[in-house]
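Worked example 2:
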Amino acid sequence: MSNVTVTDRFKGARIIALLTIIAGVVLIVAGGITWGAVASQLKAEKIEVAAVTPENPGALAGKTVQDPFTAYAQANAVNEHSLEATKGRTFAQLGDDINAKKAALKAAGTSDADIAKDKDVLALGGQRTTIQTGSFLRASLFTSVVAFGIAALVMGLGVLFILVGYAVRILAVKSETVVAPVAVATQV
């Protein structure tokens, strides 16, 4: 007569594997919802990717901003146009230019009221506002690019969780040990 022992040492591992698979599905769904939400919000803004320059418009020029590639392309176009409007000067450089112009006018005996109305000070202030607005737009577009990246990461982790959970479930099958009686040799 044989003796059969069934052990279920891996029940806990199978439960953890199932929970890992469920977590993977949740991550994929959450990442997909996030991707879709960001894409729909960008698309609702009805932004078209601007040409970087007339000579080199860029491959995505004219397309609707709705994914990480078009958002990144639009951020680059905004940067190019902002720097073009300020003759290549940054926000900080324009602030230095304004302060230098005001100091020169003050040293020449110009009143504060006249300094505030000076055409050069006003022009530099307008350029500074332009570069500042461009910077804010770029930051917003880059935030959407990061959101797309995180959504893709979460979906990728979901796939990984499912694969790991599946592998653990395969490895954690019930083991069955069969112990057969030892045959006793008979002497003749």
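DSSP finds five helices and two strands in the chain. The chain has a mean pLDDT of 89.
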